[in-house]
Amino acid sequence: MKKVVLLALNSSYSHTNLGLRYIREKLKNTEIENLEIVFIEKTINEPWLMLFDSLLKEQADIYAFSCYIWNRELIETLSINLKRIYPETKILWGGPDASSQAQFLLEKNPQVDAIISGEGDSVSTNWIISNLFLEKAFDAPNTLNPNTRLYADSEELNWAFPYTDSELQELNDRILYYEGSRGCAFKCTYCLSGNTFTARHKPLNEVLAELIHIISFNPRQLKFIDRTFNSDPERAFLIWQFLINKSEELNFRTNFHFEIAAELLTDEQLDLLATAKPGLFQFEIGAQTINPDVLKLIRRPFHPEKFKSIVSRLRSFENIHIHLDLIAGLPGETLKSQMESADYLLNLDPNMLQMGFLKILPNTPIKLECDKRQMVYQSFPPYEILQSDQISAKELMAWRQVESVVDIYYNSGQYFYIMNMLLGLKEQPFQILLELSDFIEREYGYRKISQNERYSVLANFINAQIKQYFVSDIDTINNLKLSSFGKLFSQKPDLFETVAIDLLKIDYFKQGMKSFPDWFLSFKQNKDESLNQLQEEIQENLQKANVRQRIRYEVFSFPLQELPGLENLIAFNKTELDNEKSLSFQGAGEVQITRQRLIHYLTKEILKNQKYLVAFQLSNPSFYILAEKKINSHINKKVL
Ligand code: B12
Ligand code: SF4
Fold it and tell me: What CA–CA distance (Å, rounded) separates 624 from 622?
């Protein structure tokens, strides 16, 4: 019996490895007896000795490793030490971080027997079989030559279905990857995919059959890793249409993620996409930068007006999670132009703004630019940009800080209402995020801030920083470049504070939080006789409707029942409360309303200058609005 171990090391627990699964399936398909295939999938966060132990125990004839930017150095140390213990065993490497610098790595690592560069499905299967079973060597003659250690680029024309049924069951709550096509039609200079083979597609009927099979296991998320999913518009339309139809017919929770080029979306596709169930699809759309000079340098086509109109239309459907991507530190990019790109994208109101940093990957065309543009990057993976002739190391470090603020306070969606109100105050919303980042650094330093404390951070930011805008004189306010919504609070700091804290409260309750933190302008703390009467009246009505849960009361400066995005949280009778699931989203994630709709609603409501007493029930992870009553403005000055 011969044994081969395939080791996949993912960047974190939620991910899965596709490349090695293809190789495993091809090996299985050879149906060679006396071959034991052991597939081990771990993460880079596991202790080195535990990883080493799991390899050692197998005592295999061949260890095959899948090398990526996030694991290659770890694989190097595992391979070196494994070979010291088992000198007879063979070590095989493949994957993008080995392929792109194969010659260099082979020279540096004599313990590595071979690297297969490029798409490894068939070549690695041949290499493994011919090394283990001499007599069964088939179409890879030089795999037996001990002097050959590098197997050159290979291009696969068909690839297996990667998952077994038991894996589909086990990986149900992780991210599954799926490849409907390989290769990329574009040639961005910083990317490895643009550097390899042209796009090839798996036959459509196979894709649809595989999707149905996957859906039957009801995974949380399936990510298509096709480089530009809609590069063939007709095919993209048919796959989307198929999934939309299936989501009507079948009951599943799967969210499908696609990387798309916005400008390629057709009117017909947009009409179709408008009909998708909220949460069925998630789109990642790379702009990277809007600076035309930089775009030319990195060879990316981009049409700002078309991009803007298509993304805005897509976002207005409020049914698809839209992630927009930026890359910091591109050649020719300055801090100012980077901020302009961030503002442009934030004004398109993405559900997520992904602020990546340029990586200078081995064997990418951008590497040739580095000397000319004085680009300094980490000399080790992930080769991240540290400085260029246009942007200093300090500026990029500060940008990293903003990135983490964007991730926590914007991308998480946990502070949705307050963050969108704050961003809506200025024409250039990114300025607010920069201010928040500075504020956090100044007031809290680099220490870890718990989720609970983050609400206080925002309350302090609202009070100590943003409220001060509106205390200022008219000239100072004019210099702030406020939006028309922001101008509503001109010299009305208390109105601003009340509305902002109300929105912060909603975010707080939506996360299932229940206490009364210091920053609350609370009904409980400000209760008076007239509010008491209203409370009793509401209580009586709810009792008549047979609602007996513990009820909490708060005063808000706008009607909560009509606040866009909260429509699902209204419950009027006990049956609905018992059946919480009927009110909460069943898919992989709720799709938030647009900032435009929120701002429009707030503008309309705060101009009315009304107050509302709201009765609601807190539950995990959200709350239900049970009843609401308008309050006469004279009732409780302190609260109002
Ligand atoms: C999924 C993914 C991720 C996931 C992680 C997945 C995981 N398992 O942990 C996430 C989203 C976290 C991620 C993050 C990043 N990623 Co990424 N990611 C991908 C993506 C989209 C898919 C990978 C995949 O499964 N491909 C499909 C398989 C079939 O192709 P493959 O991996 O190339 O495998 C084939 C061959 O390489 C070979 N092969 C693979 N393994 C083996 C093993 C052996 C023994 C052999 C012989 C052959 C072989 O055969 C396979 C089949 O033909 C690729 C782009 C792409 N579309 O491929 C980028 C890619 C892998 N990522 C890349 C980069 C740069 C990053 C980031 C640095 C991006 C960033 N944030 O700036 C981060 C780093 C994360 C970190 N923690 O450090 C680069 C990798 C460059 C490199 N030198 O490794 C890629 C190639 C994108 C690109 N075009 O430049 N990524
Ligand atoms: S960045 Fe995207 S579009 Fe550009 S070459 Fe890479 S995969 Fe293709």
Answer: 7
